[in-house]
Amino acid sequence: MEKLLEQIVTRDNLNRAYKQVKRNKGSGGVDGMQVEELLEYLRDNADKIVGDILRGKYKPNPVLRVEIPKDNGKKRKLGIPTVVDRVIQQAIAQVLSPIYEKQFSDKSYGFRPKRKAQDAIEKCQEYVKEGYRYVIDMDFEKYFDSVNQSKLIQVLSETIKDGRVVGLIHKYLRAGVMEKGSLKETTEGVPQGGPLSPLLSNVMLNELDQELENRQHRFVRYADDVMIFTKSKRAAERVYQNILKFIEKKLFLKVNQEKTKILHISKAKYLGFGFYL
Question: How far apart are CA 18 and CA 91, in angstroms?
């Protein structure tokens, strides 16, 4: 665990990361470099990049902010890192994911290997069969934009003892956003769009998972979509007030109290699925 940064920049790990970025395709970032140009660039510059990372001198580029339409007609903001930064983020994620997989809850399903939305729905149905017919349908307010970076760094540091890796991740969080030609600071949030953001999202929300586990609640989480199951409406209201305090006071996340609902399962929808009794 101490020499984690060296594991991240091994030739084998970086090659795997490059191949994954190439498979994912996607457009270029602020420097305009495309995935097709990446191999030649890495051949010429990999040694310098690795050296800079190991010396703590590497400086990530800002992400390019683009808006993509959502199903509901609104727009979602994505931050596109440069193709080189995508390779480095992918290399970090490849080494850290197996470490965190051992810690993650069995009730979380989003952005995890061999887990899918269908599994989350089946877990919900299992709870319903057990008589848990009321749900707290939790809605976070702009989750990716509002993650408290200091709290995230603290949580990361509890597992990752190589401070250089934590420092590199912190640089990615603080790299800034280029939007309509102007650079904006990123003092909070995790830019959506890079290979590292799904893992960081799960690391942060695993704190909520563990709290719910400790309180022996039935729940399902897919990314930032959380459903907590209870046997009565009254129990759901009590659980909601208690867990709201934990989310806002301990994790410094914002819950959208207008959109968060307590519902009978027959009126709930999760990941686009309805439930029938």
Answer: 8
Long-range contact pairs involving 233-238 (C-beta distance under 8 Å, separation at least 24): 233/134, 233/262, 233/264, 235/134, 236/134, 236/135, 236/136, 236/262, 237/262
Closest CA to 85 of 203, 196, 166, 200: 196
- 91-94: long-range contacts (C-beta < 8 A, 24 or more apart)? 91/8, 91/9, 91/13, 91/14, 91/16, 91/17, 92/8, 92/165, 92/168, 92/169, 92/196, 93/195, 93/196, 93/198, 93/199, 94/8, 94/13, 94/16, 94/17, 94/20
**Residue 140 to residue 202: CA distance in whole angstroms:** 14
DSSP 254: P
Q: pLDDT tens digit string along 104-136?
A: 999 999 999 999 999 999 999 999 999 999 999
Question: What strands lie across the sheet with 134-138, from one edge to the other?
Answer: 218-222, 225-230, 134-138, 261-264
Place of tokens 């270029």: 28
pLDDT at residue 197 in the model: 94
